[in-house]
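SAMPLE LOG
Freezer: B-3
Tube label: C17
Construct: single chain, 137 aa
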Amino acid sequence: EGLDANGAVFLKGAVRGGAHLTLAYDTDNDLDDDEEIRRDLNPSDSYPIAGDASVRGYDARSRSKLYAKLEKDRSSLLWGDYLTDPNYDFQDLGRVQRTLTGLNAIYENDRARFQVFGARPEYDPVSEEIPGNGTAL
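STRUCTURE (predicted):
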């Protein structure tokens, strides 16, 4: 029979020119469901430690088998899961925040910020219309 093997790699650190690289690749990454990719593990289930002040964080989570992010200063180039508008304020009615899997490039300096992203969404577009009732927000 055929060989059934899986492999995974995770790298994080400084690279040439003061840039920072985060790279992950998992041949067995079959996470298609948002609930599974965003699941929250509870470390106290297996390792209860009284007074633990650790901070939980996630590096390189992606529905794609590949996650790569190259950062320098405030600019970055990313392939993986990203938020289209990470500074979303719920009081801004015209802005939309989505999690997409694809390419995201950000160039930022003291005068300007440019963001270009692209992805192939897995879901059909949905719009919700809320009928007006004559009151103000």
